[in-house]
């Protein structure tokens, strides 16, 4: 097959490491796949927005639209034996790891057919068989957890790595520095991926961090700053990081990215940033549009074909939603399953222990 | 006059900040964002960034900074976006705040308030739904308050801010938007409620229901229905988990001879268990029926709406338990 | 054969590490220093630095790393130098370990053991003396074990390491050096004890004393003295706080009709309160006297020897409480 | 009075700051005071060792001998309106802040006349009226607490600073990085003093930290490496740091020092380091011997006079111990005092609530 060499939007910036080349090798098939994957994620998140507004999704719901290139570029560089762990903004990571739209929407709507059988909700998606370890609601907690996955990989001599993803807000958490120190002491194959979308909830990065150069925040640990809106740059960086991590231990990747939606569904997302800023990013840096332009300028496909892919995607999403809506809520007996792997047949109580009791499996 | 719990908390902080320049508010999104749940709306504008302080997402760090500032004589109000995140900072609450006055034989007092929403909201899953009333309530050195109504919220928060000791102030997200009538007295800026005193929300003679926070609402609704069936329930709103108003609880049980406890938190080592123990210790002979406990199910909080409902006490549960104490049973179809 | 609790713990870890290459030990000073309390003596030599891992003083970090490793299928034993320091890491124990299997509907199991000394040692003051049995015991998703004797220590720790769920294993520093007889069976490397089952340490018929950890020792001594005065006390060693062996407790109380609970931790929302509640729920009619609770005093732990003694249950306290349940009171000179 | 200018043992090393001059101004009086203060501290700790061995001190007991120059040099640069907070190795900091030997020994032996009335113990000394805020047992916790003191100082426009002291082991704690970020964002007058005695319990610094250059660990925050065995260097550094902090916010001082004793009384202190290493430091770098030499070489006093000072000190220590031994244990009624400032007259229970009950004041 044809090999294309594409230059990244901007150069990588290295901290204590020699950055990889700006010229990224790819193929037409890969580029078209990127388009499809990112468009699917975008559509899924937009649809989730509607489902939330029609009250079919409850509680917290954090959408990923704008950041798709990170999830997709990362997958392109690694295998499913490598691990990924992230925070609550996890729908698209799940999809990238091979999750289905149906399981995703089912989970969002709290159905038995959801990827966590409706017990997890928006923030708690997992796909362990493909190396996706969630879906965590406590800001920063996934970073040591990710280093623990990397610890296990090294312990088991797997020659695989873990990508632990976190936001710019999370980047100030003390447990990051604790885990990083140990990862560095023990040469764990851990890649810390800071998705810098420039806001932690309503707080701009510079208001939360004295030094918002997150790729440097490992101090004695190498780092790389990456245009997170350029899927090829992400792929290149992740491949580089994986190699580095297997040889030398941890590295930080700062992905410069942007979320189009508010922080979660309760945040209009427009009080702490201007509409101009948002539309500026959409116009100049959007990850999908970048790939669309690349496809068209290299004549890998036509405008019409891309439109039809997008249409097909809309159909897939609509179909998955329809099926998910039809799916039943979890059976009440699920209330008491999975509290333990091994429940010793012990009785467990509901709100009124004299009425609702289960026996732990 | 009606007032939401949100307004009650907001005005309480506002008035105490205006009364005492040593009071300041610190936490995530309390300033420019006006509070994740808008409790601090308008305060940044009024008091400026020196006294309404947005922090990075570093609970251990800013809770520790708050406690240190209290050591030095300031009166910090530390907001946790929810109390689930207080787990990051719990060492400072327990070891740096609660124990210092004792360890220093009174040299280092810690006039601080830790506040924020506690317990289950709706559909937020296992990591965002835990109730910490029993945990904090176990720790000497802390005072732990659990407002229900707007008057509670105003009166107890003002008392907490003025109090010279560390106070854990547990709010409930689902009550923020709820409106309650407030008296003239409660609107006065000098208003405050005594710490450690429960409130009899409804008098009754057949059974005592002891509860707190949002479950007061459910218990009052249950009492209403029970009344129609001829059972007169007394509903006690604890207001304070620590100190626990043992005398109010025991006085009521000595009158009614029957007790139901209602809480949203996990049952084991919960508030209900302590209330039961306190009644056994002081009024054993008055009890005509076993104490009945209604509590959160003994599981992590599920997301799905139907399971979530089963995981939390419902009005029916309270009614059923109350009837059991009166020896009128109404079994429920076994659900699991 | 006699064996100290220290040896029991050491051999349990050793045998499980040798049986399963996925088991590793991580914590502060567990390796080169041989353990702050020498529990891990010899293990670094035997298993090397890849499986006996000294960490920096960063509990949140290494507990999180341990939980992550367990997600991936390893079986970490995480040592806290004392459980007081688990407060730095408690979010990982509760939110990352206890809830994951449920939130993931069984995808992410967490076979991890958190262990270390818990509760009061001698003269170590308020920040180093807290008992966390009630706190951890409140949390669904965790199993919480509290060994007393060497057999307990060996059998329960081996069970904990083999268990597929997160276990909080609470040891007691003052018991480490204590010797106990151990059976042949308990010395076998296949030995383990069932999780969630209490042990009747001493049979009796007049009063049930339910307790755990070091207080089992005190309770047995109290029972001995009570026996001389004609009161036959049954002493139950809980062994497991979660699951709590409600049926063993209730069966005993139904026999004796009287109950004393003994714990070192703070009283409010404590283990004693839960035991009381569980008996009220299941055996109310069998109780002939109010349940009596003996617990740590409701204060931060003082350093001075005389105050420390007053802050912890003593044998006399247990005897007095047992007698009260039998309606033989022996009041003590009021001390404060 | 005469002004002496003495050169520090080694140059300061700065990180993101221009280090102060090696030439330190002092006076004969100050130098003699240093000698006396450090010798008193040393003697007190040696005596505590004996008291521990004779079981008059219980529990944990962490001795400061070897590190005296840090406590003494710091006091020489600051006032009692500046604040100090430290960990459990706190006896000598307390003495430096104006505490008495008698209160110190009384506390160690758990007597009513102790500085915490016997309720705190070895790890929990305080002297608030002189700006000493303890005495903390949880490694690292005192760092945010110290930044909180600095917060209050700035809030109250006090123009004073806080010295938050911690060990090399504590230097990896996440809460340090959290607090430092906020201190830097808000320009708090906080000076983080890392007493690098090269071991955290039995763990050598390089086994606990990937980067044991603690003065650099603030990354974006300035730092200074100081010979912590040279009391004049410590004084110079603390003066410099105070000025810096008032103007620019936080700074880290890494004090290169050494503890002669084991970590605490249960640690012989000789399994993880060689006896040669210990005696080498004693011979070549001891802080008291350095000052003794300085005094003799500048003829500020005579060998005999110094001996008589030391003898006098021994007398003071013995006398304080004797008096402390005579002091009563706390009254049982103290059990329930100080749990709260305001106890609302509520009843509180002892182990048997039906027998021992107190009413909270
Ligand atoms: C420990 C903790 N503190 C606070 C929160 C509430 N919270 C959830 S997300 C969030 C903002 C995180 O921002 P960032 O890390 O930048 O990630 P992003 O949302 O931008 O992806 C906050 C404050 C939490 N979940 N956990
Ligand atoms: C959070 C926490 N973890 C562990 C301990 C136990 N501990 C007490 S001191 C210490 C070593 C600290 O070393 P360092 O910070 O270098 O200070 P030094 O003792 O050398 O003065 C440890 C591990 C503790 N007190 N707190
Ligand atoms: Mg962000
Ligand atoms: Mg050290």
From TrEMBL, chains A, D:
It catalyses: N(6)-[(R)-lipoyl]-L-lysyl-[protein] + pyruvate + H(+) = N(6)-[(R)-S(8)-acetyldihydrolipoyl]-L-lysyl-[protein] + CO2. Pfam families: E1_dh. It comes from the Eukaryota. Its cofactor is thiamine diphosphate. One of its GO terms (biological process) is pyruvate decarboxylation to acetyl-CoA. Gene3D superfamilies: 3.40.50.970. PANTHER family: PYRUVATE DEHYDROGENASE E1 COMPONENT SUBUNIT ALPHA, PYRUVATE DEHYDROGENASE E1 COMPONENT, ALPHA SUBUNIT BACTERIAL AND ORGANELLAR. The pyruvate dehydrogenase complex catalyzes the overall conversion of pyruvate to acetyl-CoA and CO(2). It contains multiple copies of three enzymatic components: pyruvate dehydrogenase (E1), dihydrolipoamide acetyltransferase (E2) and lipoamide dehydrogenase (E3). Residues 36-332 form the Dehydrogenase E1 component domain. GO terms for molecular function: pyruvate dehydrogenase (acetyl-transferring) activity. This is Pyruvate dehydrogenase E1 component subunit alpha. Tetramer of 2 alpha and 2 beta subunits. Keywords: Oxidoreductase, Pyruvate, Thiamine pyrophosphate. NCBIfam families: PDH_E1_alph_y.
């Amino acid at each position: 097959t044809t090999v294309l060499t594409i230059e990244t939007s901007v150069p990588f910036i290295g901290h204590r490491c020699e950055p990889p080349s700006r010229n990224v090798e790819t193929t037409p098939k890969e580029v078209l796949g990127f388009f499809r994957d990112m468009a699917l994620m975008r559509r899924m998140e937009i649809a989730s927005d509607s489902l939330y507004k029609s009250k079919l999704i409850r509680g917290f719901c954090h959408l990923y639209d704008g950041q798709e290139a990170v999830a997709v570029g990362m997958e392109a560089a690694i295998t499913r034996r490598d691990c990924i762990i992230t925070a609550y903004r996890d729908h698209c990571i799940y999809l990238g790891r091979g999750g289905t739209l149906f399981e995703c929407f089912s989970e969002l709507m709290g159905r038995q057919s959801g990827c966590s059988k409706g017990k997890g909700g928006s923030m708690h998606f997992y796909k362990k068989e493909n190396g996706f370890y969630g879906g965590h609601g406590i800001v920063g907690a996934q970073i040591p957890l990710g280093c623990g996955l990397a610890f296990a990989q090294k312990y088991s001599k797997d020659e695989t790595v873990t990508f632990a993803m976190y936001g710019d807000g999370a980047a100030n958490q003390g447990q990051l520095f604790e885990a990083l120190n140990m990862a560095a002491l023990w040469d764990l194959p851990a890649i810390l991926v800071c998705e810098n979308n420039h806001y932690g909830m309503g707080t701009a990065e510079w208001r939360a961090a004295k030094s918002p150069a997150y790729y440097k925040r490992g101090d004695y640990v190498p780092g790389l700053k990456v245009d997170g809106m350029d899927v090829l740059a992400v792929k290149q960086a992740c491949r580089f990081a994986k190699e580095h991590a297997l040889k030398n231990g941890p590295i930080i990747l700062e992905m410069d990215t942007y979320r189009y939606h508010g922080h979660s569904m309760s945040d209009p997302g427009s009080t702490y940033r201007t509409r101009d800023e948002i539309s500026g990013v959409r116009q100049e840096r959007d990850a999908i549009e970048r790939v669309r332009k690349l496809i068209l300028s290299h004549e890998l496909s036509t405008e019409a074909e891309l439109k039809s892919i997008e249409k097909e995607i809309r159909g897939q999403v609509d179909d998955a939603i329809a099926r998910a809506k039809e799916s039943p809520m979890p059976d009440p007996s699920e209330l008491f399953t999975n509290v333990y792997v091994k429940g010793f047949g012990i009785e467990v109580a509901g709100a009124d222990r004299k009425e609702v009791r289960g026996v732990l499996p | 006059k009606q007032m939401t719990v949100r307004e009650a908390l907001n005005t309480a902080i506002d008035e105490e900040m205006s009364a005492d320049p040593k009071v300041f508010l610190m936490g995530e999104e309390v300033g420019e964002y006006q509070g994740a749940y808008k409790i601090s709306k308008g305060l940044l504008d009024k008091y400026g960034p020196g006294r309404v302080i947005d922090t990075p997402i570093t609970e251990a760090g800013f809770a520790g900074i708050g406690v240190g500032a209290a050591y030095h004589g300031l009166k910090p109000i530390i907001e946790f976006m929810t109390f689930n995140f207080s787990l990051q900072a719990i060492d400072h609450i327990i070891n740096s705040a609660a124990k210092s006055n004792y360890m220093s034989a009174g040299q280092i007092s810690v006039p601080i308030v830790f506040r924020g929403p506690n317990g289950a909201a709706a559909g937020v899953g296992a990591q965002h739904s835990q109730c910490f009333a029993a945990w904090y309530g176990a720790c000497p050195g802390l005072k732990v308050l659990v407002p229900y109504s707007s008057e509670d919220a105003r009166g107890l928060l003002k008392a907490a801010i003025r109090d010279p000791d560390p106070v854990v102030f547990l709010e409930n997200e689902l009550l923020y938007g709820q409106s309650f009538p407030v008296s003239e007295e409660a609107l006065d800026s000098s208003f405050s409620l005594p710490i450690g005193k429960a409130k009899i929300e409804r008098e009754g003679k057949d059974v005592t229901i002891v509860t707190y926070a949002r479950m007061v609402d459910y218990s009052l609704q249950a009492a209403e229905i029970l009344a129609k069936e001829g059972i007169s329930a007394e509903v006690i709103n604890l207001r304070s988990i620590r100190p626990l108003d043992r005398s109010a609880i025991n006085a009521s049980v000595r009158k009614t001879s029957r007790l139901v406890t209602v809480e949203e938190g996990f049952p084991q080592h919960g508030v209900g268990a302590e209330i039961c123990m306190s009644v056994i210790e002081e009024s054993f002979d008055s009890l005509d029926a076993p104490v009945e406990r209604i509590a959160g199910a003994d599981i992590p909080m599920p997301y799905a709406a139907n399971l979530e409902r089963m995981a939390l006490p419902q009005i029916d549960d309270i009614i059923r338990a109350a009837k059991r104490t009166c020896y009128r049973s109404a079994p429920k179809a076994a659900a699991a």
